[in-house]
Amino acid sequence: MTPERIALISDVHGNLTALEAVLADIDARGITRIFNLGDYVGKGPRGREVAELCRERCEVNILGNWEDFLLAPEPDFGRESVGLMWWRLQAWEQAEWLRTLPFSHDFWISGRRVRLFHASEETVHRRVRFDHDEQEFLGLFRNTEATGFDLPEPDIVGYADTHDPYYETDRNRRTVFNTGSVGNCMSDPTPVYVILEGVMDSEQEAPFGIQWVRVPYDAEAEIAYAAEVGMPELEEYTYELRTGFYRGNLREGLRNDEQPTYHRRR
């Protein structure tokens, strides 16, 4: 049985420069299988181009919360309609494909059943942070209407959404990990992705590994492109890419020394 490596990427959010850097690193490692955990669009200036490239390069593509609400047939954007409508129109050519992506993806690796989804076991719109409680941890392994009830429950759950990579296990070998974000990572804003290594599609126990990879890229080039095309919320986008702090902190007028880390509950 020969071990194989697959790359897991997520939360590119229209940041094509970061995606291209990450794909180049994946290629340099000789990895040919790429799974994407969603959030291709919004926040950054090139959602359509990101979707097109992921559609071409990724073997598995999963629905994210941004695809679900931004590209809905009849969206309700409320007061934040200017930026959201801009991102919606920019990505619209890929809307049909993005809206119909699967909720989750299950597979075997080295005798462990893995389930990937974007945010939680029930919906792409519920966030599970790294400092969750035991009930939230165990809930991630449940079969739901969204994941399907007719599948074995997973041993490993990989998800995204929070832009905050972490790893956690319990005494029953259940494992949860978060991929972090390629295009909008918080705390450390350097793009990050995951490599899984093991014997793919095998129910026989064998060595298994998880690795996170940080990939430097030219954030200023991405910011310059966003400015050139007149993307709304440019100040907020620039703030996130340069500092790794959430844009909500900027809107609240907090100084840098007052800023909470994005993943902490407030």
UniProtKB/TrEMBL annotation:
What Pfam families does the database record attribute to this sequence? Metallophos_2 (PF12850)
Domain named Calcineurin-like phosphoesterase: residues: 5-197
Specify the domain of life of the species encoding this protein. Bacteria
Which GO molecular function terms does the record list?
phosphatase activity
What Gene3D superfamilies does the annotation carry?
Answer: 3.60.21.10
The record's family statement is:
Belongs to the metallophosphoesterase superfamily. YfcE family.
What PANTHER family would the database entry show?
Answer: BLL5683 PROTEIN, METALLOPHOSPHOESTERASE
Q: What is the name listed in the Swiss-Prot or TrEMBL entry for this protein?
A: Metallophosphoesterase family protein
Query: What are the leading ranks of the lineage?
Result: Bacteria, Bacillati, Actinomycetota, Actinomycetes, Propionibacteriales
